[in-house]
Amino acid sequence: GNSVTQMEGPVTLSEEAFLTINCTYTATGYPSLFWYVQYPGEGLQLLLKATKADDKGSNKGFEATYRKETTSFHLEKGSVQVSDSAVYFCALNKAAGNKLTFGGGTRVLVKP
Amino acid sequence: DAGVIQSPRHEVTEMGQEVTLRCKPISGHDYLFWYRQTMMRGLELLIYFNNNVPIDDSGMPEDRFSAKMPNASFSTLKIQPSEPRDSAVYFCASSAAIPVETQYFGPGTRLLVL
User: What per-residue confidence (pLDDT) applies to B99?
Assistant: First the structure.
């Protein structure tokens, strides 16, 4: 079946540091891939997405590239801010339906 | 647009009581999802609807849980009777038919069963 594996947190960084959160997936067909972000006390928000191989999703300084050869969708940001402290979820869309399969989430804490 | 609306935002109840969580999806969205989030189990999909019809309820933990969607603008998730292990944050999300995969989440209902 479909599954998403992402690195466990928490990830603690200093402001302006480089952030990478690894995400790999297992899926049949050609799923779409997503990163959602959950700020404290809020619901999840779509951060970025990619719908086919080699696509790069980007938003708010975050980027992720759909790598079919390595079944990965790693999230990166070159210079994090305290406001980026949140839980980040990698997810994939089951090609035949509308269900999202989520990874376990990675908590990121950025210290000033 | 007001986004997905959930009520109540917080609920504290005693074991054995009935709990009803409510959700209003974004107008025009065809899909509605109920999720549960806990530290131990992460984010779990409980059930989802398409055009008010339940499509997949395989994530509903047991018969104590039920969900309805009587019309396109309202859904409920009911727990009867509630147990302490039901304590969690419950999220409702909705999505349009196109792009089908982008889900919009509500702020969640934090449930504590004593």
Answer: 59
Q: Do A93 and B56 touch (CB under 8 A)?
A: no
Quote the minimal CA–CA distance from A73 to chain B in Å.
16
Which candidate, A53, A57, A49, places its Cα nearest to that of A67? A53
Confidence bin at A96 (pLDDT 50/70/90): low
The sign one gets for the Cα dihedral A65, A68, A73, A78 is negative
DSSP string, B17-32: --EEEEEEPPTT--EE
Residue B98 has pLDDT above 80, yes or no: no
Phi, psi (rounded to 5 degrees) for B85: -70, -5
Instruction: Report which of A3, A34, A2, A12 is spatially closest to residue A111, judged by C-alpha positions.
Output: A12
Query: What is the distance between the alpha carbons of residues A100 and A86, in angstroms, rounded to a whole number?
Result: 20
Whether residue B26 lies within 8 A of chain A, CB to CB, comes out as: no
| CB-based contact, B91 to chain A, within 8 Å | yes
Does residue B108 sit at the A interface (CB-CB below 8 Å)?
yes
Closest partner CB to A102 (pick from B31, B43, B48): B43
Which token pair is B35? 């999720």
> How far B90 CA sits from the closest chain A CA (Å)?
10
Confidence of residue B101 (pLDDT cuts 50, 70, 90): low
